[in-house]
């Protein structure tokens, strides 16, 4: 039977897009406490089912697919620009396809304005009217209001008309920044994207015996299985070590390890990869806040996903992407790397940022390990020494040296030079994830 939390989430999913939601209404309708309703609505907001807007409330929105993450709803635009809704509240759940800056003559403006777009314009009432008639929403900049008949038109067409105190240029920059942030988030793989869902997962119940472990072992080739209670909550794990020497009719709940490690669907791929290397485990259960099993993620799932990420083009460029694109191997010595200090890599004083220095050291060490076909590097500990500040436009030479390297562990010493002078050192200890 579903928990109260799950019942609320399912109820929210069943509501029509654009429907207004309140804690009190949910609590009364499903006969739950307001605290339970509040937590479930917050969870629905985190997974993109609803959006909360100041002076409007919480509304059901379209849940965007991961590949459409770069599109924003009008409800999200209001939060981005600190906007106020003047009309067309019923259309806040809709997704905008593009935005048009209305800094041109009306005829030219309307050629670019189409259904599903957002016209960003100042105090030009005729432009507001024409855009709404074309099926576009309107964002009025400079804190201006509009005529009452325009608000009524927005209500009739279910198209939002929004006012913000920011100027047109600032608004466009803010929306672009939000879309860019979404693109970066799109590239971050979560456990929920790669795990085997519960309906296809292998697991045991507390009422099973050791015989059931052997049956699952033959079906799946895994040797580690989660154990669930009568409410499908993860209460233990059973491995091959646990069942050695036990009779086949021995109860599973007497051999299982209690309080096992579990992850949630929104845990990042990098985090679960590090956990698997660190703990030396091949399968981790995926559960929600109430410990109900949602799926399992295996070491093979993680490795496939890591390899897939490396083959995909990166759309949103992070600081790490900038560093990776700016570091290269020395042509004469493939174990030495070079990097130029560009403006994005500096602090407010125009010298190399300590965080970027650490990333350069880690990236060079990672590339050295890959050249030696050791595998992917997962940093366990790093100690950094800064000798001298490194000014902008410096050409750095990075020399990582492997001190020790086993099958799953490496210790690397790194020296960084600028104009043949030592400017920094690092000692890096890392786990190695076999490719």
TrEMBL record:
Pfam families in alphabetical order = 4HBT, CBS, DRTGG
Q: Does the keyword S-adenosyl-L-methionine apply?
A: no
Q: Organism's domain of life?
A: Bacteria
Which keywords appear in this protein's UniProt record, sorted alphabetically?
CBS domain
Query: Which InterPro entries does the UniProt record give?
Result: CBS_dom, CBS_dom_sf, Diverse_CBS-Domain, DRTGG, HotDog_dom_sf, Ser_kin/Pase_Hpr-like_N_sf, Thioestr_dom, WH-like_DNA-bd_sf
List, for all copies, the residue spans of the domain called CBS. Answer: 183-254, 256-314
- Coiled coil regions, renumbered to chain: none
What this protein is called in its record is: CBS domain-containing protein
């Amino acid at each position: 039977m579903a928990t109260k939390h799950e019942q609320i989430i399912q109820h929210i999913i069943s509501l029509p897009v654009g429907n207004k939601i309140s804690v009190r209404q949910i609590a009364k309708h499903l006969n739950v406490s307001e605290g339970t309703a509040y937590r479930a609505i917050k969870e629905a907001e985190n997974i993109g089912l609803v959006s909360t807007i100041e002076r409007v409330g919480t509304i059901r929105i379209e849940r965007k697919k991961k590949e459409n993450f770069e599109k924003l709803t009008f409800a999200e635009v209001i939060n981005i620009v600190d906007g106020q809704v003047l009309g067309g509240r019923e259309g806040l759940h809709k997704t905008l396809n593009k935005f048009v800056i209305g800094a041109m003559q009306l005829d030219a403006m309307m050629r670019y304005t189409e259904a599903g777009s957002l016209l960003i314009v100042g105090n030009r009432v005729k432009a507001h009217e024409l855009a709404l008639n074309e099926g576009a929403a309107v964002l009025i900049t400079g804190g201006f209001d509009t005529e009452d008949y325009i608000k009524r038109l927005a209500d009739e067409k279910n198209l939002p008309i929004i006012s913000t105190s920011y100027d047109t240029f600032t608004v466009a920059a803010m929306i672009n920044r939000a879309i860019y942030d979404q693109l970066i988030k799109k590239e971050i793989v979560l456990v929920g994207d790669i795990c085997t869902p519960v309906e296809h997962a292998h697991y045991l119940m507390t009422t099973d015996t050791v015989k059931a472990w052997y049956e699952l072992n033959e079906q799946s080739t895994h040797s580690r299985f989660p154990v669930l209670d009568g409410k499908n909550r993860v209460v233990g794990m059973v491995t091959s070590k646990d069942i050695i020497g036990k009779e086949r009719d021995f109860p599973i709940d007497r051999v299982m390890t209690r309080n096992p490690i579990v992850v949630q669907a929104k845990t990042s791929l990098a985090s679960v990869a590090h956990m698997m290397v660190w703990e030396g485990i091949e399968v981790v259960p995926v559960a929600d806040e109430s410990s109900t099993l949602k799926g399992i993620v295996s070491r093979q799932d993680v490795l496939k996903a890591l390899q897939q990420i490396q083959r995909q083009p990166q759309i949103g460029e992070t600081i790490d992407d900038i560093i990776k694109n700016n570091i290269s191997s020395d042509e004469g010595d493939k174990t030495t790397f070079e990097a130029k200090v560009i403006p994005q890599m500096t602090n407010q004083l125009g010298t190399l940022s300590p965080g970027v220095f650490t990333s350069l050291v880690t990236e060079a060490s990672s590339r050295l390990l890959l050249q030696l076909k050791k595998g992917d590097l997962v940093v366990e500990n790093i100690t950094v020494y800064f000798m001298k500040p490194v000014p902008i436009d410096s050409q750095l030479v990075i020399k990582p040296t492997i001190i020790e390297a086993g099958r799953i562990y490496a210790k690397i010493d790194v020296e960084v030079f600028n104009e043949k002078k030592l400017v920094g050192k690092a000692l890096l200890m890392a786990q190695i994830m076999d490719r």
